[in-house]
Write a structure and sequence with these properties.
eight-stranded mixed β-sheet
Length: 180
Amino acid sequence: MCIKKVSVQEYLAFAKECYQKDIWFKDNKTAVIKMLTHPRSAFYRNSQQQIVGLFCNNKLLTGSIFICHQQYPGNLMMAFFESMAHDPHYLKELVDYAKGLAADWNCKRLIAGLDGHIAFSIGYLDDNTPDFPFFGQSYNPAFYGPLFTHFGFEQTKLISYRSALSDFPISVYELNLENS
């Protein structure tokens, strides 16, 4: 296994592959990813970014766009996380990589489930989420959240939605790198 940088195009193709057989998936991230990672965008110019993937036998299995934005100093976002692998071992490799990147970028927290800014997408759906996504809602497989809690990320329940949380459970996961 190895982690290496990938292009935006490679990452988007990987994300598409992750959901190709999922009838509920609606792609609402491609345009956002292209905008946030474009070198001429204000968001890109005000952030440090690195798109990486974990490869096994030359196949991309798990990846993320790591972002540290100047409006959120000290926070490394594990943004747009995608995985074809349910095995926590693959996420561990990515988290270990993120810890090194966080040290290089002077970040004390690693946040999963925040895709660059709360206006773009926030949180991971969990097992209790209805199968179909609501309009504008980000979508992910239910196994994402448990992968993060397995490695000590603290779950933060989000409550800024009109429906009852029991009907619409979304979470963000955070790992304090000073204590790990």
